[in-house]
Write a structure and sequence with these properties.
This protein is α/β, with parallel strands linked by helices. The protein folds into two domains: 3-228, 3-Layer(aba) Sandwich (Rossmann fold), CATH 3.40.50.10840; 244-405, Molybdenum Cofactor Biosythetic Enzyme, Chain A, CATH 3.40.980. The chain is built from 14 helices and 18 strands. Strands 9-10-5-11-4-1-3-2-16-17-18-15-12-14-13 form a 15-stranded mixed sheet, with helices on both faces. It has a three-stranded antiparallel sheet with strand order 6-7-8, with no helix packed on it. Strand 17 (373-378) and strand 18 (384-388) form a beta hairpin. The radius of gyration is 20 Å and the shape is globular.
């Protein structure tokens, strides 16, 4: 293994796994820290954790465990994969995890860049933009678990770590990899690196050759495989047909538009926090409804920000979120047992719950459905999944994903 990735959520893991696969690496995505050896011919291993919103101590320990496994498989470079909108809170978890990984690996410089230009994420003057607006004006300021109200990544990361946080501007990045290397501080530091275009990320990748630890969104992996002699190729895909279901738990603007679109063409069932917390809606009730539909139905809990805030005030943030995730996890298990072979899932936390419900241990990466989202096979089964970050995909993403699962590459 050449590159080891620790991803702080399941959709992010699929995202960066796709980037590495398209750049020519043999890649496997593991659900949690594996208890077996990786295949000897594997170029990159991606360990998917559900640590983005976990308590800090838990996120740190899980990340260290993942790092220990990856380095034991021979990984020469570790990437801590975070969301392209840098989802976190003033307490963590990005800063504390990076500190712990740096101590384990002996890293002095941690280049950090969540930019993903293909999906409209860019970093300029240390500030994160989503398309043409600052992060704090993009809708992410209303995120129910990690509201991002400050677009200055230096301040965001600085609030989470005792390390100095510095910055390499776009003007330096455009001068090339050697200029980036020359700009690295003499003392240990976390460094926010600007990136506006894919070529900037390729340059950062070249500059990162030999660095033992990096942090960023999936875009930071664009230039890394070339350091190990790999070249671009498209992943293969074997079609999967059969009963399909769409499950959405994301409240992002993009996902709510996708839900609205799909509701107009397919049966839908809304799960409210009240129904989940009270037990009025059970996994068995949902499964029976899903399997009674002739088309691929939608089960969703993607409410708008005002509804989410009211729910959090009534039940508490964790209670409402945990109830919905537990419901979707159990639903996924029942659907799998009853023959459902295709699942499209929206939202990082929801994806984690679904994958845990399926007891999946390894995902085989297929071709892209949309930027940052591959179709995947669940190892050892005939099931296909699409795990979508809340902010990703066009309005008709759900229909596109279902069709692509049935089509050979």
């Amino acid at each position: 293994m050449k590159i080891g990735v620790i991803a702080d959520d399941f959709t992010g893991a699929s995202d960066i796994a796709l980037t590495l696969a398209e750049a020519g690496m043999s890649v496997a995505q593991f659900i949690g820290v594996p208890d077996m050896q990786a295949d000897a011919d594997l170029d990159a291993g991606v360990v998917a954790l559900k640590s983005r919103t976990a308590p800090v101590a838990q996120a740190v320990q899980e990340s260290l465990d993942a790092c220990a496994w990856l380095t034991a498989q021979g990984a020469e470079q570790i990437v801590f994969k975070v969301c392209s909108t840098f989802d976190s809170t003033p307490d963590g978890n990005i800063g504390p995890v990076l500190e712990a990984l740096a101590a384990k690996l002996g890293a002095r410089h941690i280049m950090t860049c969540p930019a993903f230009p293909e999906n409209g994420r860019s970093v300029y003057q240390g500030h994160l933009f989503v398309s043409d607006v600052l992060l704090s004006e993009s809708g992410m300021q209303n995120h129910p678990l990690t509201p991002m109200t400050d677009p200055d990544l230096r301040r965001v990361l600085g609030a989470q770590t005792s390390w100095p946080v510095s910055h390499i501007p776009a003007q330096t990045v455009t001068k090339g990899a050697e200029a980036i290397r020359a700009a690295l501080p003499a003392e240990p530091a976390m460094i926010i690196v600007d990136a506006i275009h894919d070529e900037d990320l390729m340059t950062i990748g070249r500059a990162a050759k030999g660095e033992v630890l990096l942090c960023g969104g999936s875009g930071i992996a664009l230039g890394l495989p070339a350091n190990f002699g790999r070249k671009h190729k498209a992943p293969n895909w074997t079609p999967v047909t059969g009963k399909a279901v769409v499950i959405s738990g994301s409240c992002s603007i993009a996902t709510r538009a996708q839900v609205d679109q799909y509701r107009s063409v397919a049966p839908s069932f809304e799960v409210t926090a009240e129904a989940a917390v009270s037990g009025e809606i059970t996994p068995q009730i949902l499964a029976d409804w899903v399997l009674s539909q002739s088309d691929a139905p939608l089960v969703y809990s993607s409410a708008d920000p005002d509804v989410v805030r009211a729910t959090q005030q009534r039940f508490g943030r964790a209670t409402a979120a945990d109830a919905i995730e537990a419901l979707f996890s159990d639903l996924a298990a029942i659907l799998s047992d009853r023959g459902v072979s295709r699942l499209v899932v929206a939202g990082g936390e929801t994806s984690g719950a679904v994958v845990n419900g399926l007891k999946a241990r390894e995902l085989k990466i297929g071709p892209r459905i949309a930027a940052g989202v591959p179709v995947v096979h669940v190892g050892g089964t005939g099931m296909a999944l699409a795990l979508k970050s809340g902010n990703f995909g066009d309005t008709d993403f759900f229909e596109t994903a279902l069709k692509m699962m049935e089509t050979a590459s």
